[in-house]
Amino acid sequence: MRRTRRGLEIDFHKVLPEEEEAKEALENAHEAMKDSRSNAETERLLHRYQRDCFSVKRRRDDLREEIDSTDNALRRKGAYVAQSGLLDFIRSERYRLSPMSYANAMAGLPFITWRQSVSRCIGTKAIHPYLYMYELFLEVKRALDDPPKNAELAIEQVNAYLKKSKRQHDYSIQTLKAECYYLRVAIEAAYSRKPPSTAIPFRVFAEYERRSSSHSQLDQVLAKEERLKWR
Question: Which domain holds residue 63?
Answer without folding.
Answer: 2-90
